[in-house]
Design a protein that fits this description.
Largest sheet: none
Distance between the termini: 27 Å
Shape: flat
Structural class: mainly alpha
Length: 48
């Protein structure tokens, strides 16, 4: 498990990881994307 955490940390520090994080932050600040994510999570929770 610690190997996985280490790999995630390395990715977040890489240029590609930084781009991914910036993209996720932009999507999270967009109200339409937030609503879309909320609907998706609602569907996933409803399947259980």
């Amino acid at each position: 498990m610690s190997g996985l955490i280490t790999r995630i940390k390395q990715f977040t520090r890489s240029p590609q990881g930084q781009r991914t994080i910036a993209s996720a932050r932009r999507a999270a600040s967009d109200p339409r994307k937030r609503a879309q994510a909320r609907r998706l999570l609602g569907r996933l929770r409803g399947r259980r």
